[in-house]
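[job 0412] stage=fold_complex status=start
inputs:
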Amino acid sequence: MSRKLRALAATAAVGLLSTVLTVSTHSAQADELVTHHEFQANCSVTTHRPDDPIVFPGLPGASHMHTFLGNQSTDARSTIDSLKAGQTNCRTPDDKSAYWFPSLYNGDQIVPPNFPQVIYYKSGILKYQEVRSFPAGIRFVVGSQNATQEQFRTAPGAVEGWECGNSAHNWDFPSYCPPGTQLNVRYQAPSCWNGRDLDSADHKSHMAYPDRATLVCPSTHPVPVPMIEFKMAFPVAGDMSRVRLASGRGYTWHYDFMNAWDGPTLQALVGHCINGGLQCDPRGYDQYKPHRGAALGPDYRLPR
Amino acid sequence: MKTFPATPGRFRALWGATLLLLVACSSPEPVTSSPFNTTDTAWIQLMVPMNEQLLPALDLVPPALAAFAADLRASHEQELVALKRLRARAGLPDANPHVGHQMPGLVSEADLAALRLDPSGLPAKLREHLGQSALLARGEQDSGADQETRELAGAITAKRAAQTAELGVASSP
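[job 0412] stage=fold_complex status=done
writing structure:
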């Protein structure tokens, strides 16, 4: 073999090798392409009460009207222990957490969401593999009922404001929604914990949002926990001029979370779906990646 | 179809358990040795603006309610002294956590503006305030922990019942 030919063969071999490498790299990437890192809790409305076990613990009637989801025992006197002893309508029965928000009114009528609502548990940070489960008993308030419209629009939790039909990025209620549509809102919770307090005086400052540019938790709140995102839909359309929240205008939207998950169940969902980079349903199953299996059994519980 | 965490998952579970143990040792209460529980602090912090924000509404009463309003002002101001003393004893900040809140029985800026335009809604607003503060006081009596705070709540429960009855007499045509 001439030197020229040998060089050519070598080049071809290298080329072939690199082609093979490229193909295998591509196929590995395609297989592991991570587009989501989340699972859903699906919970329905239980009741409406003027109670708030985080802000007004032990004081029934102290609050503006709230609409409660999930745990059916939630009231002003709820504690983590009482919630754990209660029942839930969440699809995942070992999620005994309490979820609530200011009731939405049309005139004097409360408008309750009329199907199981989506509460996402996502990664709020770039390194989704590092998200930890929530500590037992943590509770916090998301958003602010004192927000101005500008504050609501620029809040780190804001997604697209109030939506209906093709109308989005409304930072108060739209004046009109096409008949047959529902009024939707999505809003994200802070997902960095200070690692120490389960609650704080303002029920917020033990939690923080990740840095917006780097998606890293701040050093004051170094523990990344799941980022809760409420996605609520309200069956109200047409003339929206009488639509309001119990807390005021649309930009006073906020919500509350009291963690009463069974620890191992939440851990299994966080590990499989968030850390594992999947788009899971409430059983911890990603329908687009069936080979990855599910975190929970057919009854949506950890096999025991 | 189920997958169970291999080693990394188990490691994460272990990490989680360690975290839970750490957390279990710390209390969610702000100060562990304080005689005040979360009901006490929530009640004190709500009752201060409940009473304070009623006072400007009392300037708007019609002549028939003037004597009632004067008594109500005096007792509300007296309660505020006691509430602020409790607030200091509990180590709570002076700041009002309910600025701008729309809540039952709390006279908001918007309520006040509406009453200035049309004072005929005042008796109903007063009744709502008295009823709501009685309800809150009963909650404190049931779920509060600090003895002095519960005693003040007991006194307010009794006073509100009497004040509601007086309002009924004074505002009846």
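[job 0412] summary: Chain A touches chain B through 48 residues (CB under 8 Å).
[job 0412] exit 0
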